[in-house]
Amino acid sequence: AGPVHGPLVVGTMGMPPSQGNPFGAVGPPSSTVWLALFDGLTQLDEAGKLAPALALHWNAVDDNRWRFELRPGVRFSNGNPFNAVTVVRVVDWLTSQPGRGSLVGNELRNVAGAEALDDLTVLIRTTEPDAILPRRLSAMLMVEPESWERLGPVGFGGAPVGTGPYQIEDWNQRANTLVAKRNPFSWRQAKIDTVHFIALLDQSVRLQALLSGDIDMAIIGQEGLDQLRARRFQILEAPGMSVMSIAIFANRNDGAPTTDVRVRQALNYAVDRQAIAEIILGRPEQAAGQPAARGTFGYDPDLPPFPYDPQEAKRLLAEAGYPDGFDFKLDVVVDATAGDADIYQMVAQYLNEVGVRTTLRVRLFSAWLQDYMAGTWTSDAFSLAWNAAPYNDVQRPMEYFSCARPVPFFCDRAMSAKLSKAASEFDMQKREALLQELSRDYREAAPAIFLVEQIMTWGANPRVDNLSIANRVYEYDKITFRDPP
Questions:
Q1: Residue closest to 68 by CA, chosen among 91, 52, 49, 45
Q2: Are the C-beta atoms of 200 and 10 separated by less than 8 Å?
Q3: Using one digit for the tens of pLDDT, what is the confidence trace for 374-398?
Q4: What's the whole-model pTM score?
Q5: DSSP helix/strand/coil, 95
Q6: Residues 476, 165 contacting (CB under 8 angstroms)
Q7: pLDDT at 2 over 90
Q8: If 0-12 CB within 10 Å is exposed, 13-18 middle and 19+ buried, where does residue 406 land?
Q9: pLDDT for 276-293, tens place per residue?
Q10: Contact 338, 235 (CB under 8 A)
Q11: Which residues of 111-146 are buried (b: 16+ CB within 10 A; e: fewer)?
């Protein structure tokens, strides 16, 4: 039997800022589209474990070289073959100067190059030992190299060619919609012939579109769960592999209050994260106090959140020389995770109560991303999760909060040295202990206001069948429709 007729209609939180160029971001909303079109060498499964994708097997040859054996018979949506030379050409671009300037190129900055040993075997070299390189490569989605080199990143973004279950048919930027049709060459064949993606930035709009039948599935917030349950909609939950936080711009030369560790600790004591978790998420146990969420490699179960202690916050502020508080500008992106707009409002309220006069500025994700990549912040702090996805390893977000960034907003040389040591430790038990020690260091240094562990929630029309989530994205090739009653 052939594929069933669609469309399957997906409401997204937004379209990828770089369209079909998969090197401009990591994670939703971009990956909601990209993982329908592309594959990495590796992937995370439903349980958050590393699994084969375009590579079937891999092993460390030595500290700085990894050997990957590729899946045979794979073709791109234009019919061209995927092979070891493909991987080499993608790595060559990501290690070039423009490639290093992309978010994924920066994620893979430790990759030195690649070599095709034969048609289905590739050797990837790193500049330093990297114990989680196979996990990192889940973010290196394979683009068809001839199209990429002919069109360039911008042109390819409008006409992407990948190995995923779907290929682009029409991308309407003005309407913020995308139509994808089944890729007949994909190694993971889709069961539904077409998918329509519609960008609905507001969570309440996505909920209403779901309830009215205008879309089949979407990421939703907590406030719509009762309505969906009453109408027998499907609800799926998965760990976000992420700790919601507010990153504090500490690495600066203007003598701002945030350069003082006592001020950063005070900001943490000022916020009642357990109340936030209970009131907004209905989950008091989600209150967070470290870089890793539960279930993420490197999580320390013995490390508690900062207690809510506004008096201690005021004492630390006075000790640091700010008895009357100070002005504090905070940039945030909203409608990205459950309850985020309300959470940021509560944080601002808590900070104001201890004299930190907070101006909350809501930013578009595209503008936020530009400031994040270039380090051009005009604020004192900004929303940034300790996002261990797509690796489910706390080393990834720790690198964000380190001297390793091109323009670091927090830089502690001793902690960065410990992080490098953890990255080069191939004994997983020893590596976990090193990461847990670093988690305690990060809690003490307070480069962010730790808030809550993120849980992601999806709603789906009852007609959608075989729906599963891996790495915070639908497994598109498995989805089908139920027969009507």
A1: 52
A2: no
A3: 899 999 999 999 999 888 899 999 9
A4: 0.80
A5: coil
A6: yes
A7: no
A8: exposed
A9: 999 998 888 899 999 999
A10: no
A11: beebebeeebbbbbbbeebbbbbbbbbbbbbbbbbe
